Every structure is written in structure tokens, then in C-alpha cells.
Amino acid sequence: MINNLNFEIISKDGIARNGLLHLNHGTIKTPAFMPVGTGGCVKAILKRDLEENGAQIILGNTLHLWMRPGMDIIQSHKGLHNFIQWQKPILTDSGGFQVFSLKELCKITEEGVKFASPINGSKLFLTPEKSIQIQSILNSDIVMIFDECTPYQIGSHIITMEEACDSMKLSLRWSKRSMDEFKRQENKNFIFGIVQGGFYENLREESINGLLDIGFNGYAIGGLSVGEPKEYLHQILEFISPKIPDNFPKYLMGVGTPEDIVNAVYNGVDMFDCVMPTRNARNGWLFTRYGNIKIKNSKYKNDLNNLDPTCDCYTCINFTRSYLHHLQITKEINASMLNTIHNLHFYLNMMNEIRESIHERKFDIWKKNFLEDRSSNI
């Protein structure tokens, strides 16, 4: 099964599927997790270690790279791949979620978003056209449309259907403008639409149908993991995923925990990104097969065991929990580096196991065992 993005589904187990996503800087195996390198750098880990741990594709952010270092610097390097010396695929978020996070500091109009730079206070104006122009300069393998991320609530106010509808329809209009600009740029890469609509199923379906009418290379599910109750995330995901045609890659944005990813794969999702493994690593929160470890807790001070007995990453092979505890407590830079190596290895190895289990038609068994192991809390 193949479409114009050269996305092949090579095996399925129920709704879960293995695929090959052929991009201009290489082919990635799906389901895939994308480490987040917002400003052109995945924090606290070297490119060498990313590659050694099996990262296939990373994510950058349009808004942050536009503000710093700026497009003149990126152009002088002939694109983001050369600037950061990463010659594998890159997906760039359009800046829509960052606008969402700056909501109180920006003004959203039909034309675009006006806001003050959080770096130097300069006045900026980001439009769908500008976002696509920036991503074309970055030479992103996968370009994301510029959208408005609909929140679950603002303060104590739950977003109403009318408010979610207005936001979703604005995103659809911006999606069309994004695609028109993508074509004007004669971009040879690929572009994904983003499904919005809050937590209202009828709006999500309207968003999907509108995006399919425009015609993108793949489809992302946005507006989740924005403060909603966990059951809402699963409910909306189960509703949305089957309504996106199977011959397109499906990308769940900004999610999430290992458990969330496993359940999303079960619902046919192919691509994921989240800051959780790297951000949690820097804060001493480590993922293991048998539950999460807060390494700065005093009980690890004299613990001579390796971090995760099932893990073969550089950190687990070489260092004890006691040493990692010491680094975290004394705020050594090496704590962030070693913790990040482990957490990303955990996520990327989890995706390897998922792909293998789908290929062997054993995903249900693997999923059951994995979730049971994770809840055992060593």
C-alpha cells in the first residue's frame, strides 16, 4: 500500500501497523518516535549519541529557529540539516503550539498572529504564509501547516463547542493558505495537515474532511495533551484515527508517556514526538521497564544496581544508580547527559520492540506484558 508520500504499510496486527516513510533525507521505519530539538539541538545529548541510540528523525520548531539564529544564518548553511549537521530527516512544527503557549501575550487575527518576541521583545507577525516560507528555508523533510491549537480550557473556563468550532474553522482556513504557499514555494518536501476541533467529535470529523479536501501528504492529530483528563485523550484518539484514511501516515503531536504511545499505536498511529524523555531526564525522572525512577530520592544513594536491568544503553551498562543519584544531587552537567541518553534509548528501543511485535503479529501480547511490567514499580 503506497501513496504519493511514498508511505508503505508493510505489516499490520489489528489496527497497529509497521510502515516505511520515504523522505528526502532518508527512510524511517514506523511507528517512530521523534526526539524534540526545538532550536536545532536535542538538549543534553550529542548527535553521535542520538544516532547510536537509533534516532531516525528529529523535530525542530519554526518559531524558535526564526527568532534565533534567524533565517539569514540558516540560509548561509543551505538549510537546517547542514547547520546542525544532521543529515537524516527533520520535521518542523509550524509554531502554532508555541503561539498557543504565548496566548496571553499575542493577538490572533484572521491574517495571523502578532506577538512580542520572548527573547528581545521585538514585534513579530507570523502568518501561515510566513511559517511555510521559513520551513522552506529550513528545508524540512516534513512541513507542518500553521494552525491554532485549541486548548481544553482557559483558567477554569472549559472551551465551549462554539469556541472550538471558531478555532477549528480558522485552522482550516490557515491550512488552505499554508498549502497554497507550499505550492508557491515549489517545495519538494512534504506537508502534513493538523486535525483540530477540541474535544467535540463532530468538529474533529469536520476538520478531517476539510483537510482531506485540501489534500495533504499526511495528517497529524493536534490539540491533545493540553491539560485534558486522560480519558478524553483516549476517547478522541479512538474516534479520530479510523477516520483518517489508512494509506496516509498518522502523527500524534506532543504525546507523551510510554503508555500513551503504546495505546496510540494500538489505534493505528505511526509517528510521535514529545519533550518528556529529555525534559524529565534533566529533572532526574527516568523511565525504566519496571516503572519510573526519581533518581534524586535518597533511597538510591547507596544503590549499586544499574538503572534498568533490561537496558543496554551506555548509562545502564556503565553506571550505578548510586552514581547517577550523586550526579543529580550535585547538579553535575553529566547527570543531564547520562539521564538523557538513557531516556531516549528507552523510548527508541520501545519503538523497536513495538515494530518487531507488530511484524510478528504479537503486538497484543507485547502490549499486555509491557504495561504490566511498567506498573510493577521496582
Written description of the protein model:
There is one protein chain. The chain has 378 residues and is an alpha/beta fold. The chain folds into two domains: 7-274, TIM Barrel, CATH 3.20.20.105; 282-374, no CATH class. Helix content is 42%, strand content 19%. It has 15 helices and 18 strands. The protein has helices at residues 47-52, 62-67, 71-76, 80-84, 96-101, 128-138, 161-184, 201-214, 230-240, 258-266, 276-282, 314-318, 321-329, 333-359, 363-374; strands at residues 7-13, 16-23, 26-30, 32-34, 58-61, 90-93, 106-108, 113-116, 123-126, 142-144, 153-154, 157-158, 190-195, 218-221, 250-252, 271-273, 285-288, 291-294. The strands form five sheets. Strands 4-16-15-14-13-10-6-5 form an eight-stranded parallel β-sheet. Strands 1-2-3 form a three-stranded antiparallel β-sheet. Helix 10 runs antiparallel to helix 15 and helix 11 runs antiparallel to helix 14 (333-359). The chain is globular and about 60 Å long. The model has no long low-confidence stretch (mean pLDDT 95).
